[in-house]
TrEMBL record:
This is Metal-dependent hydrolase. GO terms for molecular function: hydrolase activity. It comes from the Bacteria. The chain crosses the membrane at residues 7-24, 30-50, 71-91, 97-122, 134-156, 162-185. Keywords: Hydrolase, Membrane, Transmembrane, Transmembrane helix. It holds the Pfam family YdjM. InterPro entries: Transcription_regulator, YdjM-like. The lineage of its organism: Bacteria, Bacillati, Bacillota, Bacilli, Bacillales.
Length: 322
């Protein structure tokens, strides 16, 4: 999920600690629970420091080892120890550890529901895992958790934990419904393209809007569904081979994209000066005019890589919402 959603989740998670009488009666302990919950909800994304080495390094490592199962107790232990030390609350360290661990777990599991995915089974499996069910920023979930915070502020200490617990009950039910709905839509796409070799369905910003990619023997079929309506689809033939495409495979940007992509696709064109421009993308992340997640490699006439770049070429509010 996006950073704002992770912060909201951390705040409402901390609110459930008010069910403990010791937390409800001690504002200092309540503040400590809030601190570990929010920090735990943000900790896996501290891998953003890798951005200092460039976009390529960041995209290669983001949602990798920092999100992996072995990292969960490490993050939680470090956060709980820091907060307990600052606040002199070693007696409550187990509670602080539990809420930090819950924050980390909720962060990773919510990332799992997105289409971008997460490598939380590292180092045992390098596979990117994704449920393709919920957008990176989900307006409904944000509204539910904001409403819980406002309700808790208005309702007082006694009512506050119930607002937060209610928000999490709604979140769990909503996630279950979205995952089940995704499975239903994916079956519809498979029935339409019975000979498809692979099918990917990604969520739109609105509940009943989905976009899909189906790989067939003749190429790729891309389209959208709005409720029960099939919206206009388009066909993309399989990529033509060329020496410049093969040469581009040795670039770091292409290796990063191919290590992540489920449906890698390469296209090329010859520039006016005779150079080649090779573009690699993951076809799952398509939109009407282009593929916003791509690696671009420029090669000279001797097929030497002279420039490369990788990243997202879209605004945060533009599709696809991953």
């Amino acid at each position: 999920m996006d950073t704002g959603t992770h912060v909201l989740f951390g705040v409402t998670l901390a609110g459930t600690a008010l069910f403990f009488p010791s937390v409800a009666a001690d504002s200092g302990l309540a503040a400590a629970a809030l601190a570990v919950s929010v920090l735990g909800s943000l900790a896996p994304d501290f891998d953003a420091v890798v951005r200092l080495k460039g976009k390529d390094a960041y995209l290669k490592h983001h949602r990798g080892i920092s999100h992996a199962l072995p990292a969960w107790p490490v993050w939680a232990g470090a956060i709980a120890a820091l907060v307990a030390w600052i606040g002199g609350m070693w007696a409550h360290a187990p509670l602080l550890f539990a809420y930090a661990l819950l924050g980390v777990a909720i962060h990773v599991l919510s990332d799992w529901t997105n289409a971008y995915g997460v490598q939380f089974l590292l180092p045992f499996r390098r596979e990117w895992l994704h449920l393709d069910a919920i957008c990176l920023t989900d307006p409904f979930l944000a509204a539910v958790h904001v409403a819980a915070i406002l309700g808790a502020l208005a309702g007082g200490t006694a009512a506050a934990p119930w607002f937060f617990a209610g928000a999490w009950a709604v979140t769990a039910a909503y996630a279950g419904w979205r995952i089940a709905h995704h499975a239903v839509v994916a079956r519809r796409v498979r029935r339409r393209y019975r000979r498809a070799l692979a099918v990917h369905v990604l969520p739109g910003l609105w509940w009943f809007r989905w976009q899909f990619l189906a790989q067939t023997d003749s190429g790729y079929e891309m389209g959208s569904l709005a409720g029960k309506r099939w919206l206009p689809c388009k066909h993309l033939p399989h990529a033509d081979s060329h020496a410049c495409i093969e040469a581009s495979r040795r670039s770091s940007a292409v290796q990063t994209l191919r290590g992540f992509a489920k449906r890698a696709y390469a296209s090329w064109k010859e520039e006016a000066n005779g150079d080649y421009l090779v573009t690699w993308t993951d076809l799952r992340f398509w939109r009407e005019r282009d593929w916003p997640y791509r690696a671009e490699v420029r090669l000279d006439r001797q097929l030497n890589v002279v420039a490369e770049d990788i990243g997202w070429h879209k605004k945060a509010w533009e599709a696809p919402y991953v």
